[in-house]
What does this fold into?
Amino acid sequence: MLQGYWAQFLDVTEEAAIAALSLCGRGDKNAADQAAVDGMHRAFAKATLSARVAIGEGEMDEAPMLYIGEELGAGGPSCDIAVDPLEGTSLTAEGRPGAMTVLAAGPRDALLHAPDMYMEKFCAGPAAKGALDPQAPLSENLRRLAKALGKKPGELRAAILDRPRHQEILADLRSVGAAVTLLPAGDVGPAIATCLPDGDVDLVVGTGGAPEGVITAAAVLCLGGEFWCRLRPENDEEQRRAREMLGGNAEKLLMLSDVVRSDDLVFAATSVTDSVAGPAPERALGGCYVHSLVVAGGTIRRLRRFVPGN
It folds into this structure.
């Protein structure tokens, strides 16, 4: 099973994180992103896997980095990956918490193959399973989630990207008295935290990147949480491509089983700055220690590993 190869996926996120580390706090998010991409390419070149990018940074002619359809690996079990080489490029450039390198892997055709565009997402932990209604207004689901968690609505802890497009959602959250963390970037980490026993977030809601949404969905499925989403195309070309990939309705509601169609999954994340995956890397003589979070099936691994030569 693919879950048995979790250590190789971890090698990929670790090498990307170490590559991005040298750009941390230096103000150049594009250089940091490129370094992480290069690190992933180097690691995949050594991996005994045959990995295809199901959703990543764009099409080959638009983003020749980790593009949709790119084949990676030195040969081995076939899989699809959803990847964000550096979740939080601006966070890395500014030396802020929350930056990490992330990927999710599943069997071929198990992950949503969707255009790199915006996605509206709702994510909550295991207590939310069966307790919410994806068709209901957010205010109703906030009340339902609070009840499922044994809380009052005003005790909910939410995270949302700090963007003008989220003013209505923010108003709904404020109306029930929820505590809201406004994220400058990077919604994958808080979404994962909703499903972790020691997580400090109850829900993540709002519109962000589709690759990050698929990565989140894979981790949430492994962890028993709740997730649904809609693609949000912004122009005619995105509408066309989304219709082709989703079978007609470009903005239909997608449940977790629509986004991830297998239980044989691996999620791996390695911290570049302090994040849900663990503390930032620690430089040491002859290398550095890196902190990672790996979820394979229902098993959660938190790892601190020494990587030499950096």
